[in-house]
Amino acid sequence: MDLRKLKTLIDLVSESGISELEVNEGEDRVRIVNSGAAAHAGQVVYANPAPTQAAQVAPAPSAPAPVAVAAIEEPSETGFVARSPMVGTFYRAPNPESPNFVNVGDTVKVGQTLCIIEAMKLLNEIEAEKDGVIKQILCDNGQGVEFDQPLFIIA
User: Model pTM?
Assistant: First the structure.
């Protein structure tokens, strides 16, 4: 994959506000991650062309592009904070037609499923680590979440 294509992909990720893009073209594989950081480290490009070549390409320095990130709701309740164990997409229900696993005010037991986080096309059930009542849900359905991001307040 040539550098012009890489530059175009980097610009696309910067301008669109998406957090991650992976492109496979033949034996070439490029993954661009935009963590939303104000520094240039917010964009990382890995290029793995043919096995005989190893290349790492970094984006050219430029002004950091504003990234549209959903506002992270700060916990207003006190209690146990259930956090995301991985980076992925947060889902409150097993599918769009099903009811949510939990809602505010529901009583939960240890081991009860709170949500699903999709990571690399795998659906990971996130279970309650403490008994209690759901006081606050800190993520929107379909929202991207980061490692250790607060998801629920359980009191």
Answer: 0.52
